[in-house]
Specification:
Blueprint (H helix, E strand, L loop, with lengths): L1 H26 L4 H8 L3 H8 L7 H10 L4 H7 L12 E5 L6 H12 L3 E3 H9 L3 H27 L3 E4 L8 H10 L1 E6 L2 H10 L9 H19 L4 E4 L5 H13 L2
Parallel strand pairs: 1-3, 1-4, 2-3, 4-5
Helix pairs in contact: 2-4, 6-12, 7-8, 8-9, 10-11
Length: 258
Amino acid sequence: MLQKIADHADELYLSRLGQEVRRLRREQHINRRQLAERSSVSERFLAQLETGTGNISILRLRHVAKALDCQLAALLDAAEPGNGQQGRQARIALIGLRGAGKTTLGKAAAGQLEVPFIELTERIERTSGMALPDIFNLYGQDGYRRLEQRELHAVIDEHDNCILAAAGGVSEDTETFDLLLSNFRTIWLTATPLEHMNRVIEQGDLRPMHGHEEALAELKVILGSRARDYARADHILDTSGRDPGDVQAELTSLIARH
């Protein structure tokens, strides 16, 4: 247990360090390529550093700090708890199965809080110029996961404050899910399997109507396989059997008070 706590603290430290590097780079109006040239650190590694997934050596970090006209000690201090920018706290990611209410609740909360709302799958379709079924047919599951991670990196780079609706399967790729957890305050919207299915049907997808029992059983299996990863979220909001307005109010309050 103590080792898990220490590992989590290390992950948060790397996330805050990356956020501070990205903030300083933006203040100087330079892109990653330019910072890579100044610091002699690869652009790919800088991307990992800024998203909290790269454990940089102290010498490399010294080169980055120098390129940003920053003292190494000040950069390290900014990553300590309570210092630096809010970063991760201001980015919200809603996770959960389809039918959890991520889009409906997320859009409403974003409107009330006046922050951008981003649906990751819509962004993937827009930037790739293809619908999701075409992406899977052409590139397969692995190809889709690469696009998903690429767009998640882009959202992190472009937005310090937003609400993101992630796809239900985002937890299936460990690297992508760790990236999400490190750079967003995550909220798992949960419901019973039956409610998930009924909401999908209400959205106009009638496929679960055919073979109802089989579809429900499959949904229970999927939820069971993902629940452990979903439970790594910062917050869990149960929507089962609740008035949508009450859930909306609780979600907005949960986001706003941190």
